[in-house]
Amino acid sequence: MRRPSFEELGRALDEQRYFADEGLLTAIHLALVLERPLALEGEPGVGKTEVAKVLAAILGRELIRLQCYEGLDAAQALYEWDHPKQLLYARTGEATDLYDERFLLERPLLRALRSPGAVLLIDEIDRADSEFEAFLLEFLSDFQITIPELGTIAAPTAPVVVMTSNRTRELHDALKRRCLYHWIPFPDADRERRIIAARAPGVSAAAAASLVEAVASVRRLQLLKPPGIAETIDWAHGATVLSDAGVPWPTALRCSLGLLLKEAEDVEAAAALLT
Amino acid sequence: MSRAEAHLHEFLSALGPAPAKRIDFLTALAGEPPPSLERLYWIARVTLLSRIEDAGRFDAIFSAYFADGALPVVEPVEDEAGAAQAPNRSEGELDTADWAEGSGKNASRLDLRHAREFDAGDASSALVAELTRALPRVGARRLQPARRGRLDLRRSLRDPVELRWRDRLSRIRRVAALIDVSGSQREHSADYLRFGHALLSTVDRGEVFTFGTRLTRVTEPLARSAQIELADADGGTSIGSALQALLDDSRHVARVRGALVVVLSDGLERGDPLPMARAVERLRRLAYRLIWWTPLGRDPSYRPLTRGIQAILPSLDSLAGAHDLPTLLDEVRRIPATCAGPRRRAAKEWQ
């Protein structure tokens, strides 16, 4: 699919079993139309990373992922010179120019520029040092990289860029200015039911409804770590396995709470709520 | 310019986004007129907003301009250049100032009565020097030029006369200071804030919070200027709920995770000490080391016997006394020993 219309995009996402609301649909649609990077923020587990994977599947393009971490630098994100190879060629005297393209090692960002229309996922950008954001500025605004020894490499077709952040720190304004921005909230009850129906097919409709209601009230508690969608699906699976084995549904929910919540204090608080 | 378009530009002026965002918004509208108000809302929000904290302000301005449900029509002829140069007759500086972030944050009248200006003074250079020496370091993943280490082929190749090396950059671990500024700390809070200021000028990943009646993150103002105004100075304390407020905010949690956490407080908790004990234990698990400095601790007759301190003692890695700059300096010198030893030693040391 080259550039789906708003409605086509919604249907295609549904087919991929990704249920986006109007806001997220608008954000993705605009990112494709305006050829702008899309910055996604939200609580952990609301499906930020998934957006890039699903987009790559819909558009039928390659997904290139750059996982950010503390200390990530240009050599690992943009490009690096292949020094051993350069040394070898220098010895044999074959190469006249040691800074030739064949000595260039592609890292994710450069690869995204060179493979036409790839989907680039810059995951958890807040984990990288704030200095790293400076490397991204040229890339995100013009889809090009300047290599001092070689010149500027620009993308023939703009890649689709999805950037996610868990907001452990504030991103620089210069970076955000170049992006479209969307905050993904927790899904409403209706959408969460659809997600469970699609991802955990064994769960009955009534059970899914009570489960979604329970998750919503658990999220309203002051928890250390509110459960995301993946945890909800795990919980649905777990509780269903127990109830198939003959455990009554409310007890099954309570016994499998460890799948939903990963902190002892949270499990305690939620168990009190569910009794 | 049509009326609908003028309306749109007034909306943009009220919001005051960066020019690049304005162009994105107008280009998006021109490409495909929104079929519904909801779609217009999302188009505007995705293109014009860049922080979720501003969503409330955005919603208010949006509904002020589009509450009547009339959709603006933008002629598709509007190109990027035209949008960029669109005249802003009423560039809304006034409006944006009214909405500036945090303007109403410390507006509680009751608290403001006790507002007091602190003069944190210049960072004491002795403190900075001592902090640089004493604070724990971590190896970053990034490499930097060094005398020895791994071969730096890139630099060696550029100037192949001698070999160049690089090694892992070492930098000071994250540090977070939590300063009690309540009434019982009145004499000490000025020096504590000086310590905080010195800390922030030493550590590039330092955080300082103050707590009295509530928790306040003061990292930016305290790093920038020596003068900071605290709304809840000299009021009552609720250490438990202040620490809980820290732990409830996932961004604050990220700021203390793996950090050296120093709490400067007498630990006098009115009422039930249990919530404080629970919060301190969680803080200890998040932190690299948890150090507690009380202004009373230098008294030779001091024993950690109050109910509050008793409740948190098992969670502390170190409990010591510091009440002015010389004693703070002294305690800073002991940080390496605390970091080198096993955790939760405070209870054993004060037996």
Name the biggest interface: A-B, 42 and 37 residues
Task: Report strand % of chain B.
Answer: 15-25%
What's the main sheet of chain B like? 6 strands, mixed
- Percent of residues of chain A in beta strands? 5-15%
Sketch the major β-sheet of chain A: 5 strands, parallel
How many structural domains does the protein architecture of chain B include? 3
Any idea of the CATH class of the largest domain in chain A?
Answer: Alpha Beta
Q: Give helix and strand order of chain B, one letter per element, not per position.
A: HHHHHHHEHEEHEEHEEHEHHEHEHEHHH
Low-confidence stretches of chain B: 75-123
Low-confidence stretches of chain A: none
Order of strands in the sheet with most strands of chain B: 7-6-5-9-10-11
CATH class of the largest domain in chain B: Alpha Beta
Could you tell me how far the N terminus lies from the C terminus of chain A, measured between alpha carbons in angstroms?
50 Å
Which percent range fits the helix content of chain B? 40-55%
Give me the Rg of chain A, rounded: 23 Å
Structure write-up:
The complex is a heterodimer of chains A (275) and B (351). In chain A, 48% of the residues lie in helices and 15% in strands. Chain A has 275 residues and is of the alpha/beta class. Chain A folds into two domains: 6-184, P-loop containing nucleotide triphosphate hydrolases (Rossmann fold, 3-Layer(aba) Sandwich), CATH 3.40.50; 189-274. Chain A has a five-stranded parallel β-sheet with strand order 2-5-8-1-9, sandwiched between helices. Chain A has a two-stranded antiparallel ribbon with strand order 3-4. A two-stranded antiparallel sheet of chain A has the order 6-7. In chain A, a hairpin with a 3-residue loop joins strand 6 (144-147) and strand 7. With 351 residues, chain B is an alpha/beta fold. In chain B, the strands form three sheets. In chain B, strands 7-6-5-9-10-11 form a six-stranded mixed β-sheet. In chain B, helix 8 crosses helix 10 (186-202). The longest helix of chain B is centred in the middle third of the chain and has 17 residues, at 186-202. Mean pLDDT of chain B is 79; it is low at 75-123. The A-B interface holds A 6, 22-23, 25-27, 30, 33-34, 36, 39, 41, 43, 69-73, 81, 83-84, 86-87, 98, 129, 166-170, 173, 176-183, 222, 224, 265 and B 18, 20-21, 24, 27-28, 31-32, 38-39, 42-43, 45-47, 49-52, 55, 140-143, 153-154, 157, 169, 247-248, 250-251, 253-255, 278, 282.
